[in-house]
Amino acid sequence: MRNLIPSWVRVPVVFFIIFGLVEYFANSGRQPAFIEYPMVLLFLVFVLFLLIAIEAIVNALENILYQSLDEKGKARFDAKETKTPKFITWIKSLYEKSLGQKPIKEEHEIILDHNYDGIRELDNDLPPWWLYAFYASIVFAVVYLVRFEVFNGENQYDELETEYAEAKIAIEEYKKTAKDLVDFNTVELLTSASDLSNGKAIYEANCVACHMADGGGGIGPNLTDEYWILGGDIKGIFKTVSEGGRNGKGMIAWKQSLKPSEIAQVSSYLLQFKGTTPAKPKEAEGEIWKE
Ligand code: HEC
């Protein structure tokens, strides 16, 4: 079996199995455990060197043993090694070993004394595959218990919560890049200088004809006073600009020509008129706006 799978395959495979187990049980955050905890990396490197060392020693011993055989022994050894394809013998022997059964010829060694009407019992060992799986499950249970019951590892609810929080942050991030996703439900007052200067440009290009450059009003109502016909907070204003005013009053739905982000900008800009004194204020319309 030694020479069937070369060590350069075998060692990394074992190494990655151990790595995977460590990663699974020790990983608590977003990074792989071996980056997060240098000790884990050290441990893995140690295991790797250990495997290589064992490998080298075993090979050396085998060589010494082979050299010590006489010609006949060497010939027999070589013959045995080359008869059937090695891979197949290996799988076969692995399978047989994993069953742990005595060959039929040797069954007399393990047959029990008693005889129930001719039915007799073999005292077979537990099959190794079963036994080792059982041991592995015990180890797993201990690690599991310690991790989740003693050290209070993340359970599904915690994981859900972290993922929820992460998703929320991701949505916020996305919204920053996708400004046009806003509508009157989600819009928030923009305060950055660039948004406001964009808003000013949009206002001057589209709105001054009816609302005046200082918001004093003309065809459209005065935007500087506390009186609003259709709602005086950012959400209400966004809605008015986007969907238009009451039918037949002359304020069109600007969503035809402005992007949602632009509506948010111009709405934020015109809220700055609040409390200023325009040159020719139009008389108040609507009602005093209360939040
Ligand atoms: C053609 C003239 C006209 C233009 C151009 C115009 N508006 Fe208006 N606006 C009006 C009229 C008229 C009303 C009143 C609507 C009503 O009574 O329902 C109004 C109402 C409003 C209101 C609601 C005021 C309140 O008291 O509730 C806001 C906010 C507003 N306009 C913003 C804008 C913005 C921003 C622009 C430019 C993108 C703009 N308007 C362009 C005529 C105009």
In short:
Helices cover 57% and strands 1% of the residues. With 291 residues, it is an all-alpha fold. Heme C binds next to helix 8, helix 9, helix 10 and helix 11.
Structure commentary:
It contains 11 helices and 2 strands; from the N terminus they run αααααααααβααβ. It is mostly helical and 291 residues long. The protein has 2 domains: 7-150, no CATH class; 193-288, Cytochrome c-like domain (Cytochrome Bc1 Complex, Chain D, domain 2), CATH 1.10.760. Strands 1-2 form a two-stranded antiparallel sheet. α10 crosses α11 (260-270). The longest helix has 31 residues, at 38-68. It is elongated, with a radius of gyration of 40 Å. The N and C termini lie far apart (81 Å). The mean pLDDT is 84. InterPro entries: CcoP_N, CcoP_N_sf, Cyt_c-like_dom, Cyt_c-like_dom_sf, Cytochrome_c_Oxidase_Subunit. This is Cytochrome c oxidase cbb3-type subunit 3. GO terms for molecular function: electron transfer activity; heme binding; metal ion binding. Residues 150-177 form a coiled coil. Pfam families: Cytochrome_CBB3 (PF13442), FixP_N (PF14715).
